[in-house]
Amino acid sequence: MKQSIRPVGALLRIALLAACAAGAAADPGSVEMDERQWAMATNGDDLPWADADQHCRELELDGHRDWRLPALAELETLHDPQAEGGITEPIALDTCCLWSSTTVAERPAEHGGAPGGDPEHYFWGFLFEGGTRYYSFQRFSDGRALCVRDVD
Q: CA–CA separation, 67 vs 95, rounded Å?
């Protein structure tokens, strides 16, 4: 009887190790750059601004729980026009566009461009391939979340 239990126990240990390895591979972690710690990957899907903001506020990564959406100026520091996808390595970008925490009320659009409603409901995003700022209504799924935190 003991012999039949041992192979099952060994199989369970192998399955547990494989699951742990798969979980570790799925979590790309974070990287410190310029006194900030950045998640190395986005949330994975385009989503409305409030959901992106919530994703970062609820993120637990590399032992930290104080993640947030970056300001537009912080996102712009990651732009590298020579890099593939337009973003500084080692961060991986799986989309064109990332939400920021900056509203159009905080940073008005240049050249007279104005949203069709309350500027507090429009948030800036950044298109890395072209190095272009854009703003969108908070309820549209027009970006992903790349979370950041200030280094202690």
A: 20
In the DSSP assignment, the letter for residue 44 is S
E strand spans, the chain: 30-33, 36-39, 97-103, 122-127, 132-137, 148-150
Place of tokens 């590399």: 62
**pTM for this prediction:** 0.77
Taking only Cα atoms into account, the Rg of the chain, rounded to an integer number of angstroms, comes to: 20
Per-domain residue ranges of the chain: 29-150
Classified as helix, coil or strand, 112 is helix
> Distance between CA atoms of 49 and 99, rounded to whole angstroms?
7
Q: Which fold has domain 29-150?
A: Mannose-Binding Protein A; Chain A (3.10.100)
Q: Which two tokens stand for residue 28?
A: 């790309």
Note the pLDDT tens digit of each residue in 19-77: 333 333 445 799 999 899 999 999 999 999 999 999 999 999 999 999 999 999 999 99
- How many degrees, rounded to 5, is the angle at CA 87 between CA 152 and CA 35? 15
Q: What residues form DSSP beta bridges with 137? A: 122
